[in-house]
Design brief:
Helices cover 29% and strands 11% of the residues. The chain has one domain (5-194). The protein has 6 helices and 6 strands. The protein starts with a strand and ends in an 8-residue tail after the last helix. The model has no long low-confidence stretch (mean pLDDT 94). The protein has a 4-stranded parallel sheet, with no helix packed on it.
Length: 202
């Protein structure tokens, strides 16, 4: 029996992240010292666009390779990706039932600039926990440990390139009639479509 869990920080995490977080809510540790892995949810999220699943990727400063600690990875602003991400979110969810209800909570993440990806993702997590009305405290790692015996380790489990076996409960999505139900997207897909009922689908 695990006494808690260790998680990475993600950019607008998928539904599965919160499912696991709620299951392990008694003792959550956030990883700060792992080497930054590329092509993960740490700097990408998936939304349901009119054309289907769309990945939104936060660019990082060149040099943020596998040997950079995740807490030290800097966000790149060489092009205006924030504007593009927000426009994509608007075109995906403007007609959803709860977009206007939550819009002000999320637009700030596309107007203000953060230096570090870790700080940006933590601010997003804090807002999402508040929006979902989840009171889940957490602490941070003090160093990198390859394995944890007493904690469930989700640092490599929730990944865009692999199937963890997590099954999303289907819910209404704006473009489902066109594209079918797309499971395990960013939790904002769930929030914009189901609002205060979101926790029932996590």
């Amino acid at each position: 029996m695990y006494k808690g869990a260790i998680f990475p920080l993600f950019y607008f995490p998928p539904v599965e992240f919160f499912n696991k977080l709620i299951q392990q809510k008694d003792h959550i540790i956030i990883e700060r010292f792992e080497h930054f892995p590329k092509q993960t949810f740490r700097n990408r999220t998936s939304v349901h666009s009119p054309q289907g699943k769309l990945d939104l990727i936060v660019p990082v400063v060149k040099g943020s390779k596998v040997h950079t600690k995740v807490k030290d990875v800097r966000i790149s602003y060489d092009f205006d990706w924030q504007r593009l991400h927000w426009l994509s979110i608007q075109s995906s969810y403007r007609s959803s039932a709860y977009f206007e209800f939550y819009e002000d909570e999320f637009v700030k993440f596309f107007e203000k600039k953060w230096d570090f990806l870790f700080d940006y993702n933590e601010a997003i997590l804090q807002t999402l926990l508040k929006t979902l009305k989840l009171n889940i405290p957490y602490t941070f790692t003090d160093s990198y440990e390859k394995r944890y015996e007493e904690y469930a380790d989700y640092r490599g489990e929730i990944h865009p390139k692999s199937d963890s076996g997590f099954e999303s409960k289907p819910y209404y999505q704006v473009f489902a009639e066109r594209n079918g139900f797309i499971p395990n997207l960013s939790v904002v897909d769930l929030l914009f479509n189901k609002g205060p009922q979101s926790l029932q689908f996590i």
